[in-house]
Amino acid sequence: MGNGEQSLYTDVAALLDGTMPKPPKPTYLYRTDGCALFYPGQVSLVFGDPESGKTWICLACVAEVLSHGHSALVIDLDHNGPHSTIARLIMLGAPETALRDPARFRYAEPEDGAELVAIVHDASTWKPDVVVLDSLGEIVPLFGRSSNNPDDFTLVHSLVMKPLAMGGAAVLCIDHLAKGAESRAQGSTGTAAKRRAIGGISLRVTLRDAFVPGKGGAAYLVVNKDRHGGVRANCPTGDKEPLAGTFVMTSNGEDETEWQIVAPANNDRNPGEIADAADVAALAALDPRPASVRDVKERMKWRSERANAALKAWRELPDPACSPFPTPGVGERGTEPDGTCSICHTGMFNLGDGATTHPVCGAR
């Protein structure tokens, strides 16, 4: 092939020789174990319910990169305001010298699509390392388009998010969680085209402790999607959406605020995927046995998240066939001193009012 033709195709020989660039690695927003969460040159998503800590987490990333000598751009489409945003950044440890330097930090509140595009074009010149878009739900309407239309979102993505990422920035898009129970299991609001556009990581944020001025707060970060696997590789295995870390912010009520992303331990679980013990016991009592998430949803009338968590926990229980009392209810009452079942010696489930049962052997 000629040089012109070669430029149209991937150099497979270079790929096999190992001379092509390696996949991107997360390099921004470090956890306590030294592993990072966000990828340079990629669009990432941070989504969750209102006041769950999404903006705090992204601004913490900005404060971190500014502290390390890098640059950042905050595009405030939710109109949080410069006073609030800068005050938060200073609280999170961003150096004032960096905030004062337009070569290191810039803040903008675009009023329409044309102004936003102008900001994106300007960013292609000074190339910030991190860009925060707060929030994604406000971007598409800024161009007179619908957030629920995949073609509209793809168009706006090509005008805003894609050019920022191609300039080398880690683009952090803040978004809200869908309202419907089934939709919430998938991710953020709007069209599925959002999820396809994520080239970096999609983090689901769930509140642990409410963020209170002067006191702090905490939120869980779990991996909803990780295209390159660089974050998921450093998370506990077993969950569909593994725990990526816990954002913890503390304050003494005055001027001192500290924050960190606490790395998960090897056995830490995503709290959203831990099944309720009563749900697991209910599945164990089913005859015939539950066959799939769909089967559980139809028979128990549960939502997907609940059915999936309970079925997974039930499948991890010891095999009922090994129990001398496979039929629920025929076991003898009693537990070992450590609280395990007196018959099959595995954990009991609390039914309330002091009653317990084991869903495998049926002991009560």
Which terms summarize this structure?
single chain, 364 residues, alpha/beta, Rossmann fold, 2 domains, nine-stranded mixed β-sheet, two-stranded antiparallel sheet, 13 strands, 21% strand, globular, disordered C terminus
Quick structural overview:
The protein has 364 residues and is an alpha/beta fold.
Describe the structure.
The protein contains 14 helices and 13 strands. It has helices at about 5, 10-15, 55-65, 80-90, 95-100, 115-125, 140, 150-160, 160-165, 180-185, 195, 275-285, 295-300, 305-315; strands at about 30, 35-40, 45-50, 70-75, 105-110, 130-135, 170-175, 200-210, 215-225, 245-250, 255-260, 350, 355. β10 (about 245-250) and β11 (about 255-260) form a beta hairpin. Mean pLDDT is about 85; it is low at about 320-340, about 340-345 and about 350-364.
List the SSEs and their pairings:
Blueprint lengths: L2 H4 L5 H6 L10 E3 L5 E3 L4 E6 L5 H14 L4 E5 L5 H10 L4 H5 L4 E4 L4 H14 L3 E5 L4 H4 L7 H10 L1 H6 L3 E7 L4 H6 L6 H4 L4 E12 L3 E11 L16 E9 L5 E6 L14 H8 L8 H8 L3 H12 L33 E4 L2 E3 L7
Parallel strand pairs: 3-7, 3-8, 4-5, 4-6, 6-7
Antiparallel strand pairs: 1-2, 8-9, 9-10, 10-11, 12-13
Helix pairs in contact: 3-4, 12-14, 13-14
Sheet of most strands? 9 strands, mixed
The CATH architecture term of the largest domain is 3-Layer(aba) Sandwich
Number of helices, counting only DSSP H or I runs of 4 residues or more: 14
Shape: globular
Distance between the termini: 75 Å
Structural class by helix and strand composition: alpha/beta
CATH superfamily of the largest domain: P-loop containing nucleotide triphosphate hydrolases
Name the poorly predicted regions: 321-338, 342-346, 348-364
Name the CATH class of the largest domain.
Answer: Alpha Beta
Number of DSSP-assigned strands: 13
Can you tell me the CATH topology of the largest domain?
Rossmann fold
